[in-house]
Amino acid sequence: MKLPIVFVALAVLLIASSAVAAPVWYSITGDSPSYHIQAGQNPSALAQAHYDVDAIQTTGWANLGLYSKPLSGVSNEKKANAAGFLEGYLTSELIYQSYLSTLASSFGSGVKAIPRDSADFLAANIAWTESQVSANPRDAYWMRVGLMVKMLKGIVDGYNAKASGSHRFTLVDIWFLNSDGDMEEISVLQTMKKEVGMMTKAKPVTPQPTGTHCSVLVKVANDFSNLFMAHTTWEDFVEMLRIYKVYDLDFYGARVSFSSYPAVITSIDDFYTTSNKLAVTETTNGIFTQDLYNKIVPQALLSWVRALQANMGAKSCAEWMNIFGRYNSGTYNNQWICVDYNLFKPGHSLAPGTLWIGEQIPGLFMTKDVTTTLSYGYWPSYNVPYFPEIYNLSGFSQQPNYGDFFSYSLCPRAKIFRRDHHKVVDVPSMQRMIRYNDWKNDPFSQGNPCNQISSRCDLVQGDPSNPDTQLSAFGSVDGKMVDYFAMQKGITYAQAGPTFDQQPAFTWKNPLWQSEPHAGQPDDFQFSWQTMQFP
Q: CATH number of the domain that 303 lies in?
């Protein structure tokens, strides 16, 4: 492989090796593979970045703004590749640290490379995706997919330009990081192939993890004066090396702000706000039957690719769902939630189309305008399918009961949201709601800190029978929210780390978790809410 040549101004090297007090601007010029990166803003640059890595230690988030603008005689493909190169170069150390943690989360501690069967699946998916881009050179959808591939290849080259020889990555490695959510099904599929072979019977299976990922609340004020949306990500704590990003790239079609990870060009959480005034998020449902796993093949677009396409192209929630539903991979099977703030008028009844949801399983993507339901007060989401057809086909009805854990109406978080949604009246109260965990006093917790809006499975006591609620370094790792007024200003509120509102703050100094991979993360997570606002 021919390695790129990058010329870097001395100021960049000095800044990268010492602490800085504020975000720093960087610019990239030149031609691939001989790019030139320098500190500062250059109006003729192919792309520019506004980067603050040191904020990780003070807020829990690194911050990255990536920007491009129309340039005479410069193609979108060139700008996409340069923007990716700039991100890969600047965040190279975080990328390597995140790669090791993501491997541990996906495949277990001590794994140093993607297992061959999963790598082969991803390589086949890349090959199919690129073949479709080549076969459809005038199709706007596939042109955008092609720009995404160019950007990822730029990240690979930018990372490798700074990485040591033994730590260099391929496109498969970076594709894997972006596919972290999709790997839940891909890795289970490979295990099933090895252990039992492909079967056609709808046999129940128990994927790990089984789908307990994230909580969402959409809430309209009682007087319709405001509309809130909040999300908390649930995942392994080893993956708490975070970057909050904004992509303001002229070839994207929309400015997109999102919670993310090193080398990842979407969110995975997922949580997005776009300049088209859409707020998009999801919670993971998962699938539990083998016949659905048998439908998963590499010849499709993974969930993160389709989310990116929808963010780039959609100007309404109905359009977002339509774009996302194309080329369904059947991986990362979520309930997607989209709020259209263009349609919200404070003090007025909710307009049709304000809130859409979509639920995916292999071979099926169902959508619905649920604004009428929201008009009665709230829409919750908590890893159990809303549509009965999705619920039954996914295998939820075949799961062990575990005290209504898999019930749409009666699971612990359904009860908590039903009881407490009325407490949300402003930004601080929504922040408290999405970070809520009072498991010792809340009867709906059933005595387990996993059974709360912001789970803390690291605090579990005893030996619960439910595998989703056992002791582990897993749970809520953040909070994000917007309301109508934040959307008008282009800002988001975000808090990093496990909730500590009613519980002790999480620390890696705890002997239970010290050996877990967490390079690059702060030792202690007790950060306040931040206002995410980018140039």
A: 3.60.60.30
User: Which residue in 430, 496, 479 sits closest to 232, CA to CA?
Assistant: 479
> How many CA atoms lie less than 13 Å away from 73 in the CB half-sphere?
2
Total number of residues shown for the chain: 535
Q: How many Å apart are CA 427 and CA 487, to the nearest integer?
A: 13
Asked, for residue 187, whether it belongs to a domain, the answer is yes
| Dist CA 279 CA 260 (whole Å) | 15
Identity of the residue numbered 196: V
Tell me if 180 sits within 8 A of 118, measured CB to CB: no
What total number of domains does the chain contain? 1
Candidates 495, 497, 496, 492; CA nearest to 532 is: 492
Residue 301 clears pLDDT 80, i.e. is over it = yes
Contact 433, 424 (CB under 8 A): yes
Q: How far apart are CA 240 and CA 525, in angstroms?
A: 10
In this predicted model, what pLDDT tens digit does every residue of 189-232 receive, in sequence order?
998 887 755 443 444 333 334 446 899 999 999 999 999 999 99
**389, 360 Cβ separation under 8 angstroms:** no
Q: Does the residue 495 lie in any domain?
A: no
Distance CA 330, CA 207 (A): 14
Terminal-residue alpha carbon distance, the chain: 37
Which domain range does residue 257 map to?
Answer: 1-236+245-417
Q: Do residues 62 and 242 lie in contact, with contact meaning Cβ atoms separated by under 8 Å?
A: yes
Pull the structure tokens for residue 269: 């959480």
Tokens of 423: 């407490």
